[in-house]
Amino acid sequence: MSLKAKLENRTATISVLGLGYVGLPLAVEFAKVGFPVIGIDVDENRLHTIKTGALVSSDVDANTLSRLVSNGSFILTSSYAAIEQCDVIIICVPTPLSKTKEPDISCILTAAEGILKFLQKGQLIVLESTTFPGTTEEIFLPGIEAKGLRVGQDIYLAYSPERINPGNRDFPLRQIPKVIGAISETCREMVSALYATVIGRVVPVSST
Asked: 3-204 in CATH: which number?
């Protein structure tokens, strides 16, 4: 079955890398609409708080989160190896600002290294973390091509900047228009199909 068909019938397995204030609500939204979701976070303490229901977040309903974890719709792990069994990889790792107000992309670099080890043909990679223009093409694209995979044919690559206002119940995740840019038209088609399942309005743009 093609990736687009899996997205449309919600059988694609989605992994969200980084379960912070952006990644966790996004992972929960995908699980709520029926996708099997794997949440990956290297912080074992954070995984424990999510699993035990001790996490307090105004953007995630505790009962819903507990139900999704207990019924297996939302699986939690600290291992990048889980990427091998996923159709979609969404990167939501933190990029804190430095003293000079520039994003620290060290977590993106670590994520890219971990993902490339387990990359499979047919997957869609979406970077959401706040970063410099060009990061998608300069960091992820060369690594993918070095594995002999053609972006737009073997692998789909896109950037969609995180858009969430934590704690704002007037504008929840589903109601905030999602801007998406991709490496090719085929990549744009795939990422549009992905976010259309959980976001009310998807706004494609010309490039990453």
From this structure: 3.40.50.720
